[in-house]
Amino acid sequence: MPSSGHRLRDVEHHPLLTENDHYDSSSSSSSEADAADRVWFIHDGCGMICAVMTWLLVVYADFVVTFVMLLPSKDFWYSVVNGVIFNCLAVLALSSHLRTMLTDPGAVPRGNATKEYMESLQLKPGEVIYKCPKCCCIKPERAHHCSICKRCIRKMDHHCPWVNNCVGEKNQRFFVLFTMYIALSSVHALILCGLQFISCVRGQWTECSDFSPPITVILLIFLCLEGLLFFTFTAVMFGTQIHSICNDETEIERLKSEEPTWERRLRWEGMKSVFGGPPSLLWINPFVGFRFRRLQMRPRKGGPEFSV
């Protein structure tokens, strides 16, 4: 076992902190202690607009399905069954969206590239480590820096503006569930739109909906376009995410053609590492691990921050 001085010389050969960093290790420990007490939220204008648009589009689809197609239907059980299915899918989709957006994707503690921290790692002579010059942290293997989150993210797959967050090690399962439930609800909405058009053409347009025929047609056309776009996007994303998980390769690693230096977890091992445990209904439950606590506002430099 080499001495700490030996390890420090190896570290100092590749300086981790510059003179301009001025990092205080005590502030890091306190911030890390409070990390679990804060709701993760990215203050990005484009991301917040995209997230709000996602919710509004889902609410619009629910409005058209419920008030334009199902409630005016004369078939009671048809309305009840399809209403329950669609609304359950919508709730699960929006819950998965919230979990993806408000879950820390695996951010590396900012500013931990200190000599004290390096000594605690017990590095071997000649062992190579990497420091992110932007957030002054030690980059773990497979971590990448996100310019929008302004943090290094473990197993970062990509930054998605529609969930206003990075998709990484800790929230990938929720992103997969979000794409799956949106795709399923889009297919369901498209099927209901087709049945509604057939019903209105065979019968009277004034009887198949409580809205006027022109308004009904416009609402259904917009819902069909939304369903097609949402299904295409989320189905492709769902497929690529499952492929990446089964091959234990993030989208960034695939695009950069990075050679794997880690032991890959292929197929079911990769799925179990992301969704947790053997296959079960918990895999498709976005509420797993959720703990509701009182929401507070804590004053911080640069503006207030939500905390729980």
Structural commentary:
This protein has 308 residues and is mainly alpha-helical. It has a domain of 193 residues. It is 52% helix and 7% strand. The protein contains nine helices and eight strands. The strands form four sheets. It has a two-stranded antiparallel sheet with strand order 1-2. Helix 4 packs antiparallel against helix 6 and helix 7 crosses helix 9. The N terminus and C terminus are likely disordered.
How does the SSE layout of this entry go?
Blueprint: H1 4-13, H2 25-35, H3 45-70, H4 76-102, H5 115-121, E1 131-132, E2 137-138, E3 144-146, E4 151-153, E5 158-160, E6 165-167, H6 172-202, H7 213-247, H8 251-255, H9 268-275, E7 296-298, E8 305-307
Helix pairs in contact: 3-4, 3-7, 4-6, 6-7, 7-9
EC number: 2.3.1.225
Domain Palmitoyltransferase DHHC: 131-257
Enzyme class: transferase
Structural class: mainly alpha
- Characterize the overall form: elongated
Uncertain spans: 1-33, 294-308
The tally of helices reads: 9
Biggest sheet descriptor: 2 strands, antiparallel
Proportion in helices: 40-55%
EC number: 2.3.1.225
GO molecular function: protein-cysteine S-palmitoyltransferase activity
Enzyme class: transferase
Subcellular location: Membrane
Question: Main traits of this protein?
Answer:
elongated, 9 helices, 308 residues, disordered N terminus, mainly alpha, two-stranded antiparallel ribbon, 8 strands, 7% strand
